[in-house]
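Need tokens for this chain, all 135 residues.
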Amino acid sequence: MPELPEVESARAVIERKALWRPIVEVDDSDSYVSRPHAPGEIRHALLGGEFIGALRRGKSIWCPTGASTDDVTLGIHLGMSGKIVIADANGAEVDGGDYWEGRRQPGDYRWARFTVTFADGGRLMLVPQSLRPPP
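Here are the structure tokens for all 135 residues:
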């Protein structure tokens, strides 16, 4: 399970690279990761908003948004071995480290368990390190 330094590192990645970027798409189809919400529920809440902060309490990350008139906050828990990665529009990682030991190709997001796409084409992804693409 990620320890506090890993969670703080993930929070800092979000703060550094994901704030104030309009959200245009959300893939919340993984019902395990997005529990207790049904697929599409988180997407509906986040679309059109932007993250305005990245806070940590214990091993949870909280990202308040400027989504519509409601106070919407995305809660993130890295699980057993998750990692936050932010990629630019062409898929190159701009923050989060090399989570697949150099085997991922730019633009390959099939292993992300939760993805937020920004208006500039960049993405914030929750990637479990335990899932690796074939060598």
